[in-house]
Amino acid sequence: MNLDTRRITSLIFWILFGVLLDATSSHIILSQESNVKLLNETFAVICRDSAGRKVEWSGPKGVLGVMTRPKVENKMYGTTLIFYGTKAEDTGTYTCNSGSEKKHYKLVVEAPISFPDSPEEQTAREGNDAVVRCEVRGGQATWSTLDDEELAEPKFKVVADGLIIKNVTREDSKTYVCKAFQSSTGNIFDRKIRLIVQHKPVLVPHYATDKIVYGYINGYVNLTCEVYAEPAPRFQWYLVIRKEKKKISGEISASTHASVLQLYVTKRSFGDYVCVAKNNLGMLEKIFTLDEGSQPDPPKGFELVEAFGDTLVLEIIGPDLEEDRDENMDPRWYGVEYKNSQSEEDWSLQEFNITDENTYSLSGLEPLTDYEVRCATKNLAGFSDFTNSSIFKTVSSAQDCTYSILMLLLPLLCQMFTGN
């Protein structure tokens, strides 16, 4: 082999060695290796070879290019895999291949958490099994109540589209929380669902079926009929005459679950009255017996003990009680009516249980305001006549605050001056 041949062979060797050396030192670079995306997002993943070699992308369905989904574009900074408006079917593993090396990019496309067919207010019937519906898309569902009560089997059971409640009772009427957790994103959302248990009318707790009510002639008496029922009941009042019920009117107020019948009492008013509460699930009768009582005497008087910014403290002197009286008709409460003396507003009323201290705090007032005040006694049959009114004035809030501070300091001042 002559000299030129040896030189050419040596040159080829070093060229091939350089190519091999360059190939072993080059590597693929990905801009990101994995992602969790929500639906309808647009983003790109860049792949390039450090030595500038050509790379190509492939996906779960084969080689990707400019006309595929996702599409591939060649840019100065690398071969770019572009996702426009991500869809659930874009989830998968994508490969960037340089011929001698491969790198993988993993994509998970999650639907945002949603609650289709999950009304925020649902109904169930007492005594039946019920399903509180909550369909979760994009996450796993767990259940609790608004007060974090335990929902244990066999009473409760979580199923794919909701929460089963066995043998529903009125106590199951509450707000349940359907909570969805998406492990891939860490997102947590919840849906609060109020369950309304439908049932026939029932008495409120500690409310007797039969009730004795007292009234006095030429006075007024209110018969209050209150029940629990769902749906809300319809009320009707009856007067019992010779064991026959006769419809009567005179309802002065009603709410969804209560009715008040006001009667002007005459000699013919005494007897039995029936309140009937009814809905589509059943009915309830409550009997009121109106007996004759006596109107109490009014207080002998009252006076202001102390005034604050929002309170007037009153001493009320009750009426004298006769020895041969019916003690069942003794006064049990005081009623205090009050109004701003400078306005045309109606009287407001606060009631107090009669106590041995005989001082009563009329609260919720405005500072530096003159109030016209009057008092009455109340027994089981109703109110007495009201006393003549008096005018009392609240003090300013600043005076109230100063008084409170002085009362706090008074024990300390006493110690300083007495030396104790």
Automatic annotation (TrEMBL):
Residues 112-194, 201-291 form the Ig-like domain. One of its GO terms (molecular function) is axon guidance receptor activity. Residues 1-26 form the signal peptide. The keyword DNA repair does not apply. The keyword Signal applies. SMART domains: FN3, IG, IGc2. Keywords: Immunoglobulin domain, Repeat, Signal. GO terms for cellular component: axon; neuronal cell body; plasma membrane. Residues 298-397 form the Fibronectin type-III domain. GO terms for biological process: homophilic cell adhesion via plasma membrane adhesion molecules; synapse organization. It comes from the Eukaryota. Pfam families: I-set, Ig_3. PROSITE patterns: FN3, IG_LIKE. Coiled coil: none annotated. This is Uncharacterized protein. It comes from Brassicogethes aeneus.
